[in-house]
Write a structure and sequence with these properties.
Elements (H helix, E strand, L loop, with lengths): L2 H5 L14 H11 L1 H20 L7 H10 L1 H15 L7 H18 L4 H24 L5 H20 L9 H8 L12 H27 L7 H23 L6 H19 L1 H11 L1 H6 L4 H27 L10 H11 L11 H20 L4 H30 L1
Helix pairs in contact: 3-17, 4-11, 5-12, 5-15, 5-16, 5-17, 6-7, 6-8, 6-15, 7-8, 7-15, 9-15, 10-11, 12-13, 16-17, 16-18
Length: about 400
């Protein structure tokens, strides 16, 4: 090859008349974001399908409210699980920890006579201790998380059965039950509940301001490659979705308390993973553990804290689930770890670690929740529900692998 041919148009996009137009730039960007965009499209398609198949039941206000409440504990677990998976680990014990914490809350409130709020605080502390126990073996003793949490799945299930003596405990105080199934105080006696509409409006404004502020920061450091037209479309869709859900909730019983808890968790943990040193270190550990260690990241400390956090998140999910059922049962939480892990992988996390987001895990959890809800309304048997969810999970991971291979081949 001659020198002339080597220098001939090395960057076609820099040659006059060859620059891609706005549509070309948008198409190029969207092709690179196919995984994330496909996730939202899949969610929309699933919602529309079940809305038609159930004759409009899916988006009725009462069903939307039930969707939020019934899937809240899985979404809470997914927030902690995505951080664990980003770091290259996994936690199989969360379902058993949910049962154990629910059992201990029942013992504390109904047998020890502790105030409900004291029991909640003590259970969260107990969850942190559970996470510290598992985190020690993973971070400082070097046992793979799969083995440690598999042992934890067995041990804490047994602990729940011992605490309850293989019996169920009920009832719980109304204040405790409100954490899982209560609503914020309603204002007005007819029409749309105003507090819910105000919360929806504030959330929509916050999303817009956060989006524009984040875009301005990326542009300042020349990291922005998202076409402005696509940014506007994405913001408009997100705001419309938030406002629509707010109107649906306002037309029923208002805002579920657990939705406020979940929203606060999403904001806090998304900010931590996106903006904090701890979040960057978590991604670094999952991307390349050895490189992160050589770069000065305290990998053992970060891993330990991730499992402590997962313990607290699992404890919170256990309290929410127990309050929702008004029942502490030794069989509670069965299969929760599978739903949480599925939500994370459907939401775009990589099996090998280093990739994933909190909002993506929430969307993945919503897909799982809507599938469960829609199939239940249609009367689909549990055996077919498991089959369909398994195929959806496999398709999501296969799509992720396909995108990675496509990106690698394009670089070559």
């Amino acid at each position: 090859m001659s020198a002339t041919s080597d220098l001939k148009n090395p960057r076609q996009d820099l040659v006059p008349g060859k620059q891609p137009g706005p549509l070309g730039s948008a198409a190029t960007y969207l092709a690179g974001q196919l995984r994330q965009i496909g996730l939202f499209i899949a969610l929309l398609v699933i919602v529309i399908f079940f809305q038609i198949a159930t004759n409009g039941i899916t988006l009725r206000p009462i069903n939307v409210s039930n969707l939020v409440i019934q899937n809240s504990y899985i979404l809470i677990l997914a927030i902690g699980m995505v951080m664990i998976i980003i770091a290259g680990h996994i936690d199989l014990s969360v379902g058993s920890v949910v049962a154990f914490i629910g059992a201990m809350s029942g013992v504390m409130i109904t047998q020890w006579g502790l105030p409900w709020w004291v029991a909640i605080i003590l259970c969260l502390i107990l969850g942190a201790l559970v996470g510290a126990w598992q985190g020690f073996w993973v971070a400082y003793f070097g046992i793979p998380a799969f083995i440690v949490t598999l042992a934890g799945m067995l041990a804490f299930r047994g602990a729940a059965q011992i605490a309850l003596q293989n019996q169920q405990i009920s009832p719980f105080p109304s204040q405790f039950r409100a954490l899982g199934s209560g609503f914020l105080p309603a204002f007005g006696t007819s029409g749309y509940e105003p507090l819910t509409l105000i919360i929806g409006a504030v959330a929509a404004i916050a999303i817009v301001l956060s989006g524009f502020r984040g875009r301005a920061v990326r542009r300042k450091y020349e990291l922005e490659d998202e076409p402005f037209a696509w940014f506007i479309v994405k913001m408009a869709f997100t705001v419309a979705l938030v406002v629509y859900v707010a109107f649906l909730l306002a037309s029923y019983s208002g805002t579920p308390i657990v939705l406020v808890v979940l929203g606060a968790l999403v904001v806090i943990y998304a900010s931590v993973m996106r903006n904090s040193v701890f979040g960057r270190h978590t991604y670094a550990i999952g991307g390349n553990l050895q490189a992160a260690s050589l770069s000065g990241v305290k990998t053992k400390r970060v891993t330990f804290l991730l499992f402590v956090n997962m313990g607290v998140i699992s404890a919170l999910a256990g309290l929410v689930f127990t309050g929702q059922l008004n029942l502490a049962s030794p069989s509670a939480g069965t299969g929760f770890e599978l739903d949480a892990i599925a939500a994370v992988f459907i939401g775009g996390a990589a099996v090998t670690g280093g990739i994933g987001t909190v909002p993506g895990a929430i969307v993945g959890g919503l897909i799982i929740g809507i599938l469960n809800n829609g199939m239940s309304i249609l009367g689909v048997g549990t055996e077919y529900q498991s089959l369909i969810k398994g195929l959806v999970l496999l398709a999501a991971v296969a799509f992720d692998v396909f995108n990675k291979r496509r990106a690698a081949s394009s670089i070559k």
